[in-house]
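A quick aside before the break. I want you to see a complete sequence-to-structure record at least once, exactly as it would be stored in a machine-readable document. Don't worry about memorizing anything.
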Amino acid sequence: MKHRNSHFAVGYWSRIRNGRDTPDQVDIDPRALKRLLPFVFLLDARGGQFTYRLAGTTLCERYGGELRGRDFLHPWDSDSRKRLTEMLERSLKTRLPLCLSSVGATNDCRVIEIETVLMPVTFGADHPERFLGVAQILSDISPLGGRPINFERLVASKLIYEDEPFTHTPPPSPPDGRRARPKAPHLRLVSSRGGTTVQRDQMLIYGDPLEALLAFIPVASGRPSASELISTGSRPAFPLRFGSDRD
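That is the input. The structure line, written in C-alpha cells, reads:
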C-alpha cells in the first residue's frame, strides 16, 4: 500500500474486529474515519454482485454522479472485471483486506493512478457480505480537469496479511492526490497467486502505466499525453451512516 489513508483504513478495520475475523458494519464509526469520508464507500457483495451502498462526495464527483446502486465493476475493462471478481470473492472467503492499483481515464484520455483498499465486513450474518472501501488518487489530480473517470484498468491486486496487530495511530491523511508513501512493517502484501511477487498486468510491467493506458484506450482527436495536464479542485466531505440499511 502506498497511500497513508490506505494504511489508516486497514488499521482501523483491524482494531474494530475485536478478536473476530472481520468486523460488522454496525461497528464502523464514521467519526473515526472523518478525514477519509470523501473517499470512503460501502459495497454490497451479496449474490455475486458488487453494488455501491454508499460513497463519499469526492468519489461521486470523480465518477460523474451518485454511485449508490451502481455496479462497482462497470467502469473496468473486461479483463479487469474478471480478475477483480476473482479477487473480491477470494477476499470474502479468506476474510482479508484487498489492495488494488489501477489507472483511470476520462473520455478524452486524461489519466490518473488510483489505489483502492477493500475490507470485508459482516452485516448481521456469520460471514462477510459487504466491503468497506477507500479509494485514493496517487498521482496529480489535475488531468481530470473536472471530467469524470469513465474507464479503469487493473494494474495490480494484493491481499493484505497482518504480521503484527495495529498498535499505533497513523499520521493524519494528506489531501487527495498527494504522494504519501510510508512503509508499513506490520503489513505483508501477497499477490492473488499466493506468492510474494505482486500480480501485474503484462501490458504494464515494463512501462509507465499511464502511457500504457493511453496506448490501450481508443485514440481521440487531439489526445493529450500523460504530461499534458490541467488543474481542478475537490469537494468537501459528507456525513455517512453505517447503521442498518438492509433492503
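Two observations worth writing down. The two ends are 34 Å apart (CA to CA). The CA atoms of residues 102 and 154 lie 4 Å apart. We'll return to this after the break.
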